[in-house]
Structure formats: structure tokens, C-alpha cells
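thought: fold this chain, then report.
action: predict
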Amino acid sequence: MSDTLSKLTYQTFQQGKNYFGLAHKTLSSQLMNLIHPTLGQKTKPIPNEVLLKIHQRLSLLLETDWQDAQKGLYPTSLLFDNPWSDFFRYYPLVCLDIPQIWERAEQKKYQEFSQEVETDGYPSYYVQNFHHQSNGYLSDESANLYDLQVEILFSGTADPMRRRILAPLTQGLKAFESVPPKQIRVLDVACGTGRTLRMLRATLPQASLYGTDLSPAYLRKANQQLSQIKGELPQLLQANAEELPYLNDYFHAVTSVFLFHELPAKVRQTVIEQCFRVTKPGGVFVICDSIQLHDSPELAVTMESFPEIFHEPYYRDYTHDDLIERLEKAGFENIEVQVHFMSKYFIAHKPAEN
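observation:
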């Protein structure tokens, strides 16, 4: 396939996901206003000039995604890695779950779990119905629906945003060019269903990959997803990121995607310090998370609405937080910040040994 045709296919693929996400959200919003009109009152209309900025950011994200693939940072096939079987299997369940989400949101039931779901032993901040989703992060049903729910939320751009960690990651690993590829170790903290690890495997086919998550259900889903791809299966462990079960200076690189906005401020610092501890001197730590007010003030209306529409109890504090200061306090240096669409990236380096 020629580059021109391949790019057109990619743009069409992404545009289709974007339109589908917008159609789903528009229809569900109209139904919500009919059934639960008080919920609709929480949302502020997004001004046209803000919508234009969002569209411009989206176009830049997709162009960057395409260009990085063309540069060989990851296989072009990764651009089309869509779990179609999960889509057809679980989209009806996503729709069936919506009335429960509305009911939970209207009644402000933020810690509602099914009787069969075990909630003991988890930090209190984690036992939440994040996004008002049923059973939070603690059931197989939640794990099955999560990726599709996030794709709908971001109108098909969740994976392109995740892939923005790959360029700074591979750049950071150049500090270890003398290390055989099979001996490179990379940890993904809060790996969830394994979407980021799939991308890491495609980008680093010989590296040893590791993932931790608090949810056994999401780790089961990750094992299922990752067993379908070529290469050595990543080593997954159930673990709290506040106490990573690894030796000091063990990983050449550490990543974390969409975690920090769901942590209280004090816990953010603890997790960053743990990531510093397990990163090798000269290694890199790459964070992907939400945009913040000081880098994207023009999108303040969307950041203000987000925790109102979805249950994100720590998001508002996150949008004001200084993660550069937190990273420096832990010991990281040479911190670079990037912004792509609705996500922000921190690329931090652990000082090399003299």
C-alpha cells in the first residue's frame, strides 16, 4: 500500500471513530436530558471558538501519530490496531450500562459496588466509581467495557494519545544503546487492560516488559489481550504503585498512562518517588495524563466540566498541580513537557551515575 493511500486509510479510520464517538455522546446526552434533566444542567455548552481549538489539536495529534509511524518509531500496523471483536461484543453492554451510570450520577452514589465485588484491602481513594462506571475498576465486566468506554469518551483518540509516549521513550532508551535489546526492562505502572503494553511490545519487540495494576480484574483482561500478540508475554503483577515490588534501579524506563489525575495529591508524590526508585540511573520516566490549566487555559471550560460530568474526585486538584516540581523533588531532572490534543506528557530523566 502506498504511503498516500495508507495515510488516507488511517485518516478515514480515525474520522470514522471520531464520528461514532460524537454520535454516541450526542444521542446519549439527548436521552439523558429527557430521563435525568438535572444531570444535563451540570454541563456547560462549549463555545464555538473552543470547539475549533479542540478540532485543531485533534488534527495535529493525528498528523503527529502518522509521522511517528512513518519515521519507524513504531509499525504502521499499530495505527489500525482496533479490537473489533470487543467492539461488537461489548458495545451493546456499554449501552445497557448507561442507565445505571445516570442513576448513580444523579443519586451521587460514588462508592456503589456489587455484592460479589471484593473491596477490602484497597486504598480508600481507589474504591470509587470513577466515571460513574459500574463497579469502578474492580470487576471483569468493568474491565471488558473500559477500553471501549474510553475510546467513546475521547472520540477515538485514546490510542493516538497513548502512542505519544513511544517517541520520548525510545529516545530515552538511547542512553542504554550498549545494552542488548533483550536485557532492556520497561515497566508500565497502572497498566490497566494492557493497551499501552501492546504498543510497547510492538515498539520494543525484544525488551522485557512489566506491568502493575491494583485491579486483578483488569490484569486478567490484560493477560487476555496480550496473549493475542507476538512476542514474550509481559510480566504482570497486582501491586499498589505506592509500593512497587521491584528492586532499586531495576528498569531502564518506566511509563504511566492516565493514572495521576485519579490520585490524591499526596499519593501522586509517593508514586513518583517509587518510579524514581525503580528507574536505573540514566533511565527515563514518561507520564501521559490530562492537560492542565496552566498549559491549556483556553480549554478551561472542558476541564471544569469534566469532574462535574464524570466522577473524578481528584481531577480538579490535578489540573492545578505542579508535576514538574513533584518530579524534581523526587530527584528527576531534564524534564520535558509536551501537549497533544487533550493529554499532557512529562519526560523525566534519572541522573546518570558519575
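thought: worth noting. The chain has a mean pLDDT of 94.
final: C-alpha cells above.
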